[in-house]
C-alpha cells in the first residue's frame, strides 16, 4: 500500500462570463448647481448634509439586435445642517445630477437574465466611473468631494420589482 493519495483534479473556480460587451460609456447629462451662488460659501458653517438618489434605466436601441443603452442616474443634493433645535433642513448648498450611460451588446443570454444583466450588472460595472465624475464635479465646484458609497444594485432592482409587482396579500 502506498501512503500517497491521488490529488483531485484542479477545480476551475472561474465564474462564468457574462454574455455582455460594453461597447462604450459616456456622460449623457451632467449638471452642477449652486443655487445661492457666492453667499453659500460665506454662510456655510459646517460640512453640508448630502442626500443621494439613484435610478437605473435600460432601453433597447436596435430592434433586430440585442443592443441596449443602460443609464445610471445619480442625483445628489447637499443642504446646510438644520438650525439648532429644528428638524427642517437648511438651504440647498449644491445639486449634482448625472446621467451616465453605457451602450451594451448582449450575446444571446437566456431571457430570464436579460433584465438582471441590464439593471444590476451593467450599473455595477459603470458605477466607479460615475462615482469619480460626481466626486470631481463637487470638488471642482469648491466643496469637499462627494464620495459615493458602493451601491447594491441587486437590492435596488428587487425593490423596483416589488414596487411594480407587489406580492398579493393572503394567508401565509
TrEMBL record:
Its subcellular locations are: Cytoplasm
- Listed InterPro entries: SecB (IPR003708), SecB-like_sf (IPR035958)
Record-level Gene Ontology MF annotations:
unfolded protein binding
Q: Which domain of life is it from?
A: Bacteria
Q: One GO CC term of this entry?
A: cytoplasm
Which BP terms does GO give this entry? protein folding; protein tetramerization; protein transport
Keywords attached to this entry = Chaperone, Cytoplasm, Protein transport, Translocation, Transport
Q: Briefly, what is this protein's role?
A: One of the proteins required for the normal export of preproteins out of the cell cytoplasm. It is a molecular chaperone that binds to a subset of precursor proteins, maintaining them in a translocation-competent state. It also specifically binds to its receptor SecA.
Summary of subunit composition and partner proteins: Homotetramer, a dimer of dimers. One homotetramer interacts with 1 SecA dimer.
Family statement drawn from the similarity comment of this UniProt entry: Belongs to the SecB family.
- What this protein is called in its record is Protein-export protein SecB
Species of provenance: Parasaccharibacter apium
Amino acid at each position: 500500500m502506498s501512503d500517497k493519495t491521488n490529488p483531485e483534479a484542479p477545480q476551475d473556480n472561474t465564474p462564468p462570463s457574462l454574455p455582455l460587451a460594453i461597447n462604450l460609456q459616456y456622460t449623457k447629462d451632467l449638471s452642477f448647481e449652486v443655487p445661492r451662488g457666492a453667499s453659500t460659501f460665506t454662510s456655510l458653517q459646517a460640512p453640508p448634509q448630502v442626500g443621494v438618489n439613484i435610478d437605473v434605466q435600460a432601453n433597447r436601441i436596435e430592434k433586430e439586435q440585442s443592443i441596449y443603452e443602460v443609464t445610471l442616474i445619480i442625483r445628489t443634493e447637499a443642504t446646510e445642517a438644520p438650525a439648532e433645535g429644528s428638524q427642517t433642513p437648511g438651504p440647498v448648498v449644491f445639486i449634482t445630477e448625472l446621467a451616465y450611460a453605457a451602450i451594451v451588446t448582449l450575446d444571446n443570454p437566456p431571457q430570464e437574465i436579460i433584465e438582471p444583466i441590464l439593471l444590476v450588472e451593467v450599473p455595477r460595472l459603470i458605477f466607479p466611473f460615475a462615482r469619480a465624475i460626481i466626486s470631481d464635479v463637487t470638488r471642482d465646484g469648491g466643496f469637499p468631494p462627494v464620495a459615493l458609497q458602493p451601491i447594491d444594485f441587486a437590492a435596488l432592482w428587487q425593490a423596483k420589482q416589488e414596487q411594480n409587482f407587489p406580492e398579493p396579500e393572503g394567508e401565509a
